[in-house]
Amino acid sequence: MKKDVLHKSPAQLSKNLKPEKRTLFPKRCSAKNAGDELGTQVWTALEEPSCLWQSSFSDRIQKTELLTAEAERALGEGLQAVRKELLELLLGARLVLDWIFSEGKSCGAVDCKSLPKDRVTLLLEAMREADTFFLELQNRPSAAVRERFESVRDGIRRSLAGCTLHVSWMEPLFELIERTRRDLARLRDTGSATFAGRVTSAEALERMLWIPAGEMDGFFASVHRLHGLFLARRNQLVESNLRLVAALAEKRRHLGLPVEDLVQEGNLALVSVAEFFNPSRARFSTFATLKIDSFLLRANDNSGYFIGRPVHVCERMRKIAKAERSLFEQNGENPSVEDLAVATGIAPDEIESLLQLRQPVDSLDASLAPGGPTLLETLADNPAPVEDTDFQAAA
User: Fold this and answer.
1) Whether residue 145 sits in one domain with residue 278
2) Most CB within 10 Å of its CB: which of 14, 134, 253, 384?
3) Same domain? 40 vs 75
């Protein structure tokens, strides 16, 4: 394929490319990046001219320069340093801790496995102890009380430092912090309220953050600066590896999902992996490939279902499907449940229940035949009225 193929229109591409060789991600070797095979996977052709988002994605991954090994290592180290500093700052605020134990676990920002119930109980007790010390510090400030409060708060930080906290999924928390900053500014600008009322509200806000009123502005400014720096470095690492997602999506297109769905799932995995990238262990492509590939398989397992199935259930269903194909090739007929139980080592009752889960949900917008009507169009619009003899007799 010529190098100027990227500058041609989709109509010109369809004329130059043979039908059997048309692909969304053909290889285009570059002299600068010849050593990185995954980095040379680019989106150079479009199957449908109407897919504008594909063209946009293609332009984006081609304009983004690939990182060298030294630049990638420096970016990864800087990202981890900012993440550590940001979490250390956040975990010292009572408002953040309350959010972690409530909304944080439900939205996925906190890994529930890394935060078991017994640890949560100990942390809640430590938070109540810190509340007591901070209240005493507000009433009678002293160096001894501050020292004990700082000791308890540092213990809480150390306990949560080993948990899996996803900064990328903490956007609701940063919105909550921003609302709190606006509340503080509104409290200071309120001229009609009494002095006693403003003092009470300020003290309540201090207890909610575990931060004295004079240090709140510095806390909000530091959170805003570190969060912006974290997003900038993470996005740079993500955008420089979009070609990796394109290559893996092309590799997994045989799963049956549209390529655009695979790319979206891969990009979500890429964002999650970039946050925890440790450059001292391996290159980012090596570190991220397994995670992205598992996201693609997971998306395929749950496609067409209203409720996502657990990972172990999907693995067993793939094992059964593999045994079905193997036994069919050997015997030339569909295997029975007993044959599958012998081949897979799974109980027959469990195999029957797993086979029932393989029935996907059909979409009403799906075509019954190529170019034919959809399932929704075949449904009756005006069903025949039901005759009600009792109603007619009463009329």
Assistant:
1) no
2) 134
3) no
pLDDT tens, 344-362?
A: 888 888 888 877 776 666 6
**pLDDT tens digit string along 121-178?**
889 999 999 999 999 988 888 899 999 999 999 999 988 877 888 998 899 999 999 9
From 266, 276, 271, select the one nearest 245 (Cα to Cα).
266
What pLDDT does 230 receive? 95
Q: Is the pTM of this model over 0.85?
A: no
Q: What type of residue sits at position 211?
A: I
In a domain, residue 361? The reply is no
Block residue for tokens 């309120």:
190
Separation in Å, CA 77 to CA 28, 72, 80, 92, 274: 31, 9, 5, 23, 11
114 and 262 share one domain: no
CA distances to 118, 299, 310, 362 from 314, in Å: 30, 11, 6, 19
Contacts 24+ apart (CB under 8 A), 151-158: 152/126, 153/92, 153/210, 155/126, 156/91, 156/97, 156/123, 156/126, 156/127, 156/130, 157/88, 157/91, 157/92
Residue 335 makes CB contacts below 8 A (sequence gap 6+) with: 323, 324, 327, 328, 343
Same domain, 43 and 85: no
DSSP at 35: T
What residues have CB less than 8 Å from 210, skipping those under 6 apart?
A: 92, 93, 94, 130, 134, 153
Residue 246: domain span: 3-66+240-301
Count of the separate structural domains present in the chain: 3
d(CA 319, CA 297): 14
Cβ(227)–Cβ(85) under 8 Å?
no
Asked, for residue 168, whether it belongs to a domain, the answer is yes
Whether residue 293 is contained in a domain is answered as: yes
| 277: its two tokens | 């990238």
Q: Token pair for residue 88?
A: 């250390």
DSSP string, 238-282: HHTTHHHHHHHHHHTGGGSS-HHHHHHHHHHHHHHHHHT--TTTS
Task: Confirm whether 33 is domain-assigned.
Answer: yes
CATH (domain of 319)? 1.10.10
Coil, helix or strand for 325? helix
- Give yes or no for residue 36 having a pLDDT over 60: no
Q: For residue 8, is pLDDT > 90?
A: no
> How far apart are the C-alpha atoms of 369 and 358, rounded to whole Å?
22
Q: Measure the CA angle with vertex 164, ends 297 and 147; round to 5°.
A: 175
> Reduced to 3 states, what is the DSSP secondary structure of residue 56?
helix
